[in-house]
Design goal:
This protein is about 20% helix and about 35% strand. By secondary structure, it is of the alpha/beta class. The protein has one domain. The strands form two sheets. Strands 2, 3, 5, 7, 9, 11, 13, 15, 17 and 18 form a ten-stranded mixed beta sheet that branches. It has a nine-stranded mixed beta sheet with strand order 1-4-6-8-10-12-14-16-19, with helices on one face. α3 packs across α4, α6 crosses α7 and α7 runs antiparallel to α8. It is globular. The protein starts with 19 loop residues before the first helix and ends in a 5-residue tail after the last helix.
């Protein structure tokens, strides 16, 4: 059935992508090396042919972007849509960043500067981009992005401390597309914190981005990521980590901001002995919608993954989590887990939790679980018998619920700020 303006399956205000975006795509080609133009052409053709998703797609079943009017948003292919601030913290307990001289070959910059100063490396790293096959909103940033974040760590380079990248994106009545890459060559290691923010504005905007994480053999990445766009803004992102043999990834993700946010988070365990630990937190409230779609794909023998995502929901907020563990026939001795825990604070909150397993090997250890519930009255009673008022007791319980996830973030300063942001929603 073709989508029309009145289709019950329609998610977006328009039934198709705006025609004006094709002109923006043509303008954007000038920002990229000619060698990469065929890739951008392929991405645009893919996005245009796929069109906008609808509710017949299980991944989009509970989403609604009808209040977002693509036709009214401005696109700017001439100037960078992001402001990048890079800070370095030598210890987790540091309150202020410290100066650092990056080792030779390390690159932490914007996509535009990457092309300007490292074009050969840029072409090598960005030539491969099979993310465009993941869907319309993976293909669009591949075609329309004119900037993003680039982090490149050469072979055997190990950075101690924490690199923090603050990406500020002006979204006031704009559609902004970003293409982001984090690449660690063989034997490299890095602790990285990414913080996505937008300026406060009365006018809503839309961010659509991709994040491609590549880990070479025996590399190690600890990635802390926080999405805290303004509450009037909309977000869709595709984020994927590809792990070579014996590489290690810990990925902590917190979804705080936006009006409505849809995030695809995928790990591809492609090399024998690779491992990934994923932790996540979200607290949608006051009609906010946060949808995290996670996938743990095991392609090689003796791989490990463990996912723990938690959400608290209140005041017509909606939390949606889709999870899937896939085990290939070649991935014997896989060890994989996923858990989703949800706490509902009132009767108006809405939680959707959909775990899944698809296993094609026989020598594996895999499990999954999901819980949705209210605060245990026994916990309330225990705290109130010790003189703690009900509201304060509720806050203590929610704080304890999130504690495991918050403590996974490496910077103590970030832990405090993240907990404050989550707990501030108890007062909203």
């Amino acid at each position: 059935m073709a989508l029309t303006e009145k289709s019950p399956y329609q998610i977006f205000a328009q039934p198709s992508l705006p025609l004006s975006w094709e002109a923006a795509f043509r303008d954007n080609l000038a920002n990229w090396p000619i060698k990469l133009h065929p890739q951008l052409e392929k991405a645009w053709e893919m996005a245009w042919s796929l069109g906008l998703p609808d509710r017949k797609d299980e991944s989009w079943r509970w989403m609604d972007y009808k209040r977002l009017d693509f036709e009214s948003l401005r696109l700017n292919s001439q100037t960078s849509p992001i402001r990048l601030t890079v800070s370095f913290f030598s210890e987790a307990a540091d309150e202020q960043p410290t100066p650092i001289s990056l080792p030779e070959g390390v690159v932490i910059t914007t996509l535009g500067e990457f092309f300007e100063h490292h074009e050969d490396l840029a072409v090598r790293l960005l030539t491969e981009n099979d993310l465009i096959t993941e869907g319309t909103f993976a293909a669009l940033p591949s075609a329309l992005a004119n900037d993003g974040l680039i982090v490149y760590i050469p072979q055997d380079v190990k950075l101690d401390g924490m690199v923090q990248c603050l990406l500020e994106i002006p979204l006031d009545n704009r559609a902004v597309f970003t293409r982001n890459l984090v690449c660690l060559e063989e034997g490299a290691s890095l602790n990285l914190e990414l913080v996505w923010v937008s300026q406060d504005s009365y006018l809503s905007g839309f961010h659509n981005g991709i994040l491609d994480v590549r880990l070479g053999q025996q590399s190690c990445l600890n990635l802390d990521e926080i999405q805290q766009f303004a509450r009037v803004d909309w977000n869709i992102s595709h984020e994927r980590a590809s792990l070579a043999a014996d590489s290690q990834l810990e990925w902590n993700y917190a979804a705080i901001g936006s009006d409505t946010s849809k995030n695809f988070i995928k790990v591809e365990l492609q090399g024998e002995g690779s491992s990934a630990v994923l932790n996540g937190a979200m607290f949608p409230t006051r009609e906010q919608v946060i949808n995290l779609d996670t996938r743990q794909n095991h392609w090689a023998e003796s791989t490990f993954s463990n996912l723990m995502y938690k959400s608290v929901v209140s005041q017509r907020g909606r939390s949606v989590w889709h999870g899937m563990i896939y085990v290939d026939p070649e991935a014997q001795k896989t060890d994989a887990f996923q858990t989703n825990k949800n706490l509902v604070l009132d009767d108006l909150a809405d939680v959707k939790s959909v775990p899944g397993l698809e296993i094609h090997a026989n020598d594996v250890k895999c499990s999954h679980g999901a819980t949705v519930g209210k605060i245990d009255p026994g916990e309330f009673y225990y705290l109130q018998t010790r003189g703690i008022p009900q509201k304060e007791a509720e806050k203590l319980i929610v704080e304890g619920f999130f504690n495991q996830i918050v403590q996974s973030f490496r910077l103590e300063k970030t832990q405090r700020e993240l907990l404050d942001q989550l707990m501030s929603r108890m007062n909203s």
